[in-house]
Amino acid sequence: MTHKRVRKAVIPVAGLGTRVLPGTKVVPKELLNVVDRPILSYVVAEARAAGIEHFVFVTGRSKGAIEDYFDHQVELEAQLAAKKKTAILNELLAELPKAGEMSFVRQMQPHGLGHAVWCARDIIGDEPFAVILPDMVMDAEVSALKQAINAYDEVGGNIIVVEPVPHDQTHQYGVVAVEAKGGRLNKMTGMVEKPAPGTAPSNLIVSGRYILQPEIFELLASQEKGAGGEIQLTDSMFRLMETQGFHALEYDGVTYDCGDKIGLLRANVAMALKHPELGEAARAALTPFFQ
Ligand code: UTP
Asked: Where do the Nucleotidyl transferase domain residues begin and end (predicted)?
């Protein structure tokens, strides 16, 4: 059976990034650098490698720099061209979207992730779509979102990308319940947000990539506030599970939570070490700290 193609991705970027203050006081969290480029550059590259054709950023006040990042910086480009700094100029130009490839909608108040996704409803329309939480930089040989889309092509419905954590950490995350653990793709039977220690149905946590069917929007429209007084995407997914299939995909790769200070540091170290031009120098610079 062929399933309707996933062409669009929603990237919610309206959160306040309080866990990485003061760095995010004036710079949007999503534009903090990991080595030599903003976090968003990594997730957009991941989505492009998965065949995404349209990006819907759900943005908010003080996040205008995100829109600017994906546009020409005419003066800078002219300067680089005049000084024949061609390599970096080409790198900048390669980041730019094709005309019309990105939309920006405003979430006027941070009512939660569920509300942010709902703000994208008119641009997504009646088709399956991806949700990408940009704090999560997922380093994988085959793009994490591509792995999710491959799973969707196989089983259809809704896909949640998950990853295992030690059992004593499950209470910090959204955790999925799966039917029977056979391989990496398993039918889900439930999910729970931050379960009390010792009560989690598995050690597989929701890790920031989703393929969802458009029926989620009707549920989000009527979704009551949940944990933290916010409209939670998890609560509407749980309701959608009554009528639609959900599968959890344990993806093959490493996740860095760049919305957290130590996660951001880990991402910087890991990406520096594997950087094609900077890797060797990064290793030399870091080694003395461990001797
Ligand atoms: P987080 O809770 O990690 O983001 O939400 P945050 O609020 O920016 O971070 P802290 O906890 O204050 O440090 C996950 C994703 O959902 C988006 C965030 O931008 C982030 O990408 N989000 C969250 C919204 O777009 N709107 C919201 O109302 C809440």
From this structure: 8-268
